[in-house]
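User: Please run a holo structure prediction.
Assistant: Happy to. Please share the sequence and the ligand.
User: Here you go; the ligand is fe (ii) ion.
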Amino acid sequence: MNTHTPPRFDPTRVAHLQGSFAPVTEEVEAADLEVTGVLPDALDGLYLRNGPNPRFTPIGSFLYPIDGDGMLHGIWLSEGRARYRNRFVRTPALLAEERAGRALWGGLESMITPDADQVGPELAGTFRDLPDVNVVRHGGRLLALAESDCPFRMGTGLETLGKEDFGGALPAGITAHPKIDPVTGEMVVFCYGLEPPHLTWSVIDRDGAVTRGPTPVDGVDEPMMIHDMALTARYAVLVLAPVFFDLGAAMAGGSFLAWRPERGTRVALIPRDGGPLRWASDEAFWMWHTVNAYDEGPGADAPVVLDYVQWSRLTVGGGSEDTADPVTGGLVRARIDPVAGSMARTMLDDTRVEFPRIDDRRIGSRHRHVALATDTGRTDLLPGEYDAVRWYDTETGTSQVWSAGNLSVGEPVFAPEPGRDTDGSGSGAGGTGSDEHGYWLTFATDRTDGSSWFLVIPAEDPTSGPVARARIPVRVPLGLHGCWLPTV
Ligand SMILES: [Fe+2]
């Protein structure tokens, strides 16, 4: 076994392996879930969510939210009834560990990898796949997504079909946060890497064919971590916060991620038509997730509006809060001037929030409503744990909150009511509309007894809380990102 000075590690002391985050090992399914309230007949489809869920007790290290095997949790809705199924994303490493009956790979920071005697020559010395971040459906593929690596293709029953490199066209993989243009059907992706080129972008058309292979982003000469992206009609938008990979520090037992605020944060506006890059820069901030972006006008020099969740610096793992320099954040709007190369940032709402989502049919055009996970100020929540859902209205500048009480909630995902328009007027960059018609979906787990629920919250009156709660007969650990896949 290859052991690069592994740090002392006690998984029972890792917050994100306890409580509502504790992984589950059973794969189950349950039909006709018990429902409190009424599941809307209009919702016909599948709600899916991915998240880190180590199959075996981790060894070496565990870094939330990156480490862990992927597990998909699905709720199938039809005719007012719900059924549930969960399945691991079965990577080659997970299959090898199931044969061994224990963890063979350490967490990323431990750099522990198994040797050929344990896993055979093909897997020996490799890093494990981590398709545990997100799940999307595009171009006929259902994909469990990893952080800048090849995703895994999943079947309709959540069985693992294999690693997806898009016919060999994207061998290095893609981001966990691709963006699908609701107008063209294209999926735009990026990929960062330790080796040059350190950052590329690509395009996959609505039928799943790669129409632009990995295209280097000029001006990125070092390996940097970039978690999410945004899309406008004109640009792919990448935020390059000063988080650099430091393999030397990792080999010495330290963190492989270095925060270098003196380098500032840059935004790359990448013309989707292949034109020259445009850059803007500002003082350093960190961003896990974009909300949305759009072009402010039709001209090539028109500013770009980017809404995102900002943090004052990088936080991973959640165990190193510096009380002298607490991390602050909130929902921010940046107006990016591609001509001046500058950006003006405005804090819209300084409440602690994460997991922002909009009606995905508004991606790339002006949006009005933003849903986010937030907290009510309780002090007994773990980093990354939220007990409320917040809706921000970009038109009025106001927020509404539904407090979930003893429930810890996850990312809210919008399920539009079939046949109704989006939350905008449908007129692209010019419209904001009035209401949105549909439901916000999420999983929730009760901190007092570990019971888990699937929640359906009406978009037109969200603070009234769920119109339906489906009881899931097993615990669903808090996770990361998901999607609503209407039956087509
Ligand atoms: Fe994410």
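The pocket of fe (ii) ion is lined by residues 133, 177, 227-228, 288-289, 480-481 (CB under 6 Å).
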